[in-house]
Structure formats: structure tokens, C-alpha cells
Amino acid sequence: MTSDLKEGVMRVVKERNRREDERDFQTFCDQLLSLPPNLEFMPKANFVADVELQPWRWLSLGIDLLQSRKVTRHVQLADGIQGPPISSYLPYPVFQMATEIFLKGMWLYQHQDCRAIADSSYVDLGIRHNYLQKLGPRGLGHDLLKIVDTLRLVPDYSGQADTLRFLDLVERITRRFYFPPYTADKRTRWADSRYPKRVYDDQAHDAHAETFQSYPRAEWIEKLFLAMEADARRIWN
To answer: Of 4, 77, 112, 146, which cross-links 81 as Cys (Cβ 3.0–4.6 Å)?
Structure first.
């Protein structure tokens, strides 16, 4: 097959795939719009959705979020085909949520009653409420540095060199790449910096879109957290 003919075939195939994808997308939208506007999925009978206290599930969800990376560019292969990404990074909201959930899972791991929870285990309402208070804004909150400091005081972590190194690295990553460099954030909730920012000069009535973006490679952060996930299982098992 000549090069021109091969390129022509590829264009036809790509156009056909594009049309099929567009058709499937429109069908998907139509099916959603056919659902009742007040649709709600609720647990059956007397079940209610409440806080999960199995620590491994927190660590697992944190890893899932860390893998929601944003690709900067792809390797360009022959015939216009894109290969694997050259690099990727974690925007602030993704890093904030993933790290908070993962670290709170590490905090839950110290409690034997949480580690013992199986898929069908029941946890009393009062116990759930107590843990939720400790995990929420009035407890560990959303401040990653505060959560890191709390974990350093957990006896089973304070004696583990690898765990302390992990916590040190998380703190350095947060301070170097994700700590809010804004005076305004020091007067409000720290986690609010996950919202997009614009830089204002109110005296001059001037403003500019934020350009402060410098992130580490997402795969390195993921590697760091995956190693800690394995260590947590080893420590508590």
C-alpha cells in the first residue's frame, strides 16, 4: 500500500469513527434527557448513605484521584498517531482532594475497629457520627499541613522512618508546589485556594489571570503515594 493511499484510508477511518462517536454521544445525551428531572438514586428500604470508615477504601480513592492527571503533551508517532504522554501534572484541586482523602485514610488506619470493617460490617450510628466529627472541618479539616502534623504524632507512624519520610515529602510538595501564595488565603479557609484565582491591584483597578503554575510530575507523586499505601498495609496488617 502506497503512503498516499494509506493516509487516505486512515483519514476515512478516522472520519467514520468521529461520526460514530458523535452519534453515540448524542444518543447518550438524549437518554439522559429522557429521565425524570427530579431523578434521585436512594438506598433501598431503611438504608442511608453515611461515612465510610474502612481506611483502605480512603487510600484507594486517594490513589484513584492521583491518577486523574492532566496530560501536557503526547509523544507523536508515525501517521499522526499519538503515543503515551510525555509528561502530566496534578492541578491544585486534584492534589488537594486526593492528598486529603489519602492522609485521612492513614489516620483511620490507627483505629482497630476501622481496620476490622468488612464489606458487610455494620457500624453504630453514634460511632459513625464521632468519626465524622473528627474527620470533618472541626477535626482534621482540610489543611494538608495540619493533617500531616497530626499523623506524625501517631505512635505507629512516629517510629517508621519510611512513613516519616513520606510525610516530610508530602509537606515539601505542598509547600513548594501547592501552598497558596496569596495573603487573602491566610485570612480565609486554606482549602479555598482550590478555586481559580485572578491577581488584582485594586488601587490601580488592574487585574491579570494567574500564571503561577509550577507542578511536579504526576507520575512521581503517584509513585510516592503507592509506596505509602503498601507500607500502610504492612504496618497495620
So the answer is: 77
